[in-house]
Amino acid sequence: MRVRTAVVSILAIALFAWFLSTANLGEVWRHVGRARVDLLLVALVGMAATYWVRAVRWQHMLAPIGPTRFRTVFRSTVIGFAALGLLPARAGDLLRPYLVARQEHLSAPATFATIVLERVLDILAVVLLLAAFVWLVPAAARLPPSILEPIKVSAALAVLGVAALMAVMWTLASHPERIGAFVFAAARVLPHALARRLARLASTFSSGFATARQPRELAIAVLWSFPLWMIYAGEAWLVTAAFGIDMPPTGAFLLQGLLVIGVAVPTPGGVGSFHEAYRIGVTMFFGASNDAAVAAAIVLHAMGVVPVVLVGGVFMAQDGLSLGRLPALAGAAREKEMPDTDEVPVLRPSGR
After folding, report:
1. Are residues 66 and 330 in contact, defined by beta-carbon separation less than 8 angstroms?
2. Is 254 in contact with 151 (CB distance < 8 Å)?
3. Does 136 reside within a domain?
């Protein structure tokens, strides 16, 4: 665990150093000083709204597993994203379902499975918005054909890939007991007790995809995914416009495709990789100056990480959690084992 943390920390430092090495830091600071504060404030409001939308969508995905309280889901969402900004290896994606499962007495593996579904819906929304930009929006014609055509092919392949993932999740949701039996049969080379545990875990995990076979809940979750990612795109456009970079509003659909790739790198908060993805996107596709791109990337990333870390810290303090315990909680979630309640505080009951 410590070795992995050290590796990703070194990676984050190296990526961010590389990102800064391309810029004149004096010019970067001047660009920050000239940025339009009004646009940045509107973008900040939009960022705050994304956590409310995520909580609403997640509650619909959790509905087939069991009842949940919105406040619990919302606070766990904020704490989880705060952990994403502080811990490596996307530990926050394990922490927030773990917290909800403990508070609402749900199956931990099934709750974690909803995060996998959530990621698929995120990719679906990002890819379809990207496809709409490159195929339907006139502004895409400004891109050179040598750049636009590969993007069109990539978007088409991504749509097919997401459709395949949705089909797999529907299969897992429709026959969770068969998945457990299959794992048990395949694990004959393992000790009997371990094989049974793996089979039970696989069956429970696949049951977390139950939303995929409930048309109403799945449709609502899919529908909420598009305003969510349109808000993200709007935030990226507002920050970009605040730095005087000439990017059409729909161009943010293309940009956020790169940003999603950037945050997939398992550094805390996507440090370095997010910044570089933004810099490449606005300089390559929209002709931004390098120093303006670096300045905007730093501000956009800070707006996405700093507020949620601060609010998440307040929620953790209110619920009896501490920053020092986050790695242990994430480790417990990764192992799918609930620690003793004497060791880790349970989130206090909250209103609906």
Report:
1. no
2. yes
3. yes
Residues in CB range of 178: below 8 A, 6 or more apart: none
Q: Is 320 left (phi over 0), alpha (psi -120 to 50) or beta?
A: left
24 CB neighbour count, 10 Å cutoff = 12
Q: For 159-171, how does the pLDDT look when each residue is reduced to its tens digit (9 = 90+)? A: 888 888 777 777 7
**Statement: the pTM of the whole predicted model exceeds 0.90:** no
Structural domain for 149, as ranges: 35-334
- Residue 110 phi/psi, 5-degree rounding, is -65, -40
pLDDT (0 to 100) of residue 263 = 83
| Of the candidates 153, 140, 117, 163, the residue with the CA atom closest to the CA atom of residue 253 | 140
Is 9 part of any domain?
no
CB atoms within 10 A of CB 103: 20
Any domain includes 48: yes
Helices (H), 35-175: 37-62, 70-86, 92-104, 108-136, 145-174
**Max Cα distance, the chain (Å):** 66
Q: What CA–CA distance (Å, rounded) separates 61 from 98?
A: 15
- State the Cα angle at 205 between 200 and 208, rounded to 5°: 135
Is 2 within a domain?
no
Question: Comparing C-alpha atoms, which of 167, 128, 145, 138 is closest to residue 253?
Answer: 128
Total of domains in the chain:
1
